[in-house]
Amino acid sequence: MNFSFVSGNISTSGALVVTIFEDGEFSKTAELLDKSTGGALRRSIESNRFKGKNGDFLEILAPSGLSNSRIVLAGLGKTTNLKVTDIENLGGKLFRDLASKGEKEVSVILDDLKVGRLDESTLASHLSFGALLRTYKFDTYKTLKKTDNASLLDNFIVHCAEPRSAKTSFDKLEKVSEGVFLTRQLVSEPPNQLYPETFATQAKELELLGVKVTILNEKEIIDLGMNALYAVGMGSEKESKVVIMEWNGAPGGVEEKPLAFVGKGVTFDTGGISLKPAAGMEDMKFDMGGAGTVFGLMKVLAGRKAKVNVVGACGLAENMPAGNAQRPGDIVTSYSGKTIEVLNTDAEGRLVLADVLSYTQEKFKPRLVIDLATLTGAIIVALGNDIAGIFSNDDNISEQLTSAGNAVDERVWRLPLAECYDKLLDCDAADMKNIGGRAAGSITAAQFLQRFIENGTPWVHIDIAGVAWSTKEKPTAAKGATGFGVRLLDRFVADNYEA
């Protein structure tokens, strides 16, 4: 689909979209269209009891006096409540609705719309960005494809006062969409196609953007002493891997300490010997969602030439039951030297992260560490499927993440860490056990990870188990992989850490 920004004459073909606020206020173009159609807009509003609430549409087909196929009145709600994410959602909904109705072209008139300090041209870019995000679909393995109405929408045109400014802004947002799409694609892939080796190969493509990529094979993992990670993948015929991605964009050069993002990449999780129930196990292909987000984030940062040094580190393994699989009761020595009694082999993600967290801190001495993982079902019980849980030893970074999440509508909520929870991991046979019991499961998982944070390194753990995949469509995403975290962390970096 082509996105363009224009000023001047309004298109007389395809669908034409104008905005309406909840207080009944018409935009300039809406007033002109109402007059040119003999009051058709106001009559339709009255007969359909259209209130102009945020997200509501009212369509007028083949309006008399105009050659456009339809006019769409797009409700924006109350002017005081409008957010930039509402504009992005509008773009996504327009694409979904109009593409499904066979439209080939849509023109949207924003009429000097402003949101806070954001002018019409910036909002035009975000409107198009929302539509672009909604275009992604996972159909890689469909050979008998039905005619897809979405392919019929060829042109998405936004009228604004400064088209060049809008295009410049959109070009930057397009780089973000590329990272989101990479994450969605990786999370959607079936486990017979995406396993540690093929997953690691995806990272090599980032070298074209200037990312230094290092892949540690299983022998190197063993030689380094990453026994916790290695133990998770012992039951699989697929070798475990560790992927290290480095982007050095800081003006101060490579000497400037990097930000570190660490991802859990369990490409399929059967639970191991502590086998999961069969029902729903197919969903465990997205247990690599944390690593997928880190891959997508690195693509965004390198694609837009972010002025910061960043390391992305991901542990990749497949958790399978077999004669040589890790057993409940095994004790492993982690990379840090700390020993772990594995009481449940289905609490494997924290074992993967433990070694990669320790390795990343020792090798790169980062300014901060943020890890992402589809770590616990307990976080879904606590927060549902719209908000991710965060756990941290640093108030400032937690606030920065919360702010970034609110700005891009990838919200996070901070949960507590405390000694009373940490004690639940104490163990008679080893330095710690890998589970703390049913109570506060997400918190004890985070407490486990915190035991591998050294020397007061600022750290945040983001549990994305509830938000990496959606069973319902959203304005800017179809059902399935959401790409959650890419926009959140890109905004976090841009707002707080770029020179």
TrEMBL record:
Cited Gene3D superfamilies: Leucine Aminopeptidase, subunit E, domain 1, Zn peptidases
Enzyme class (EC, first level): hydrolase
Annotated cofactor note: Binds 2 manganese ions per subunit.
This enzyme's EC code(s): 3.4.11.1, 3.4.11.10
Domain Cytosol aminopeptidase, residue spans: 344-351
Residue positions binding Mn(2+) 2: 264, 269, 287, 348
GO MF annotation list: aminopeptidase activity
UniProt key word Metal-binding: yes
Active site: 276, 350
Keyword terms of this UniProt record: Aminopeptidase, Cytoplasm, Hydrolase, Manganese, Metal-binding, Protease
Binding sites annotated in the UniProt record for Mn(2+) 1: 269, 346, 348
Domain of life: Bacteria
Subcellular location: Cytoplasm
SUPFAM superfamilies: Macro domain-like, Zn-dependent exopeptidases
CDD domains: Peptidase_M17
Cofactor(s) it depends on: Mn(2+)
Catalyzed chemical reaction(s): Release of an N-terminal amino acid, preferentially leucine, but not glutamic or aspartic acids; Release of an N-terminal amino acid, Xaa-|-Yaa-, in which Xaa is preferably Leu, but may be other amino acids including Pro although not Arg or Lys, and Yaa may be Pro. Amino acid amides and methyl esters are also readily hydrolyzed, but rates on arylamides are exceedingly low
Record's function text: Presumably involved in the processing and regular turnover of intracellular proteins. Catalyzes the removal of unsubstituted N-terminal amino acids from various peptides.
UniProt similarity note: Belongs to the peptidase M17 family.
PANTHER family: CYTOSOL AMINOPEPTIDASE, LEUCINE AMINOPEPTIDASE-RELATED
Protein name: Probable cytosol aminopeptidase
Gene name per UniProt: pepA
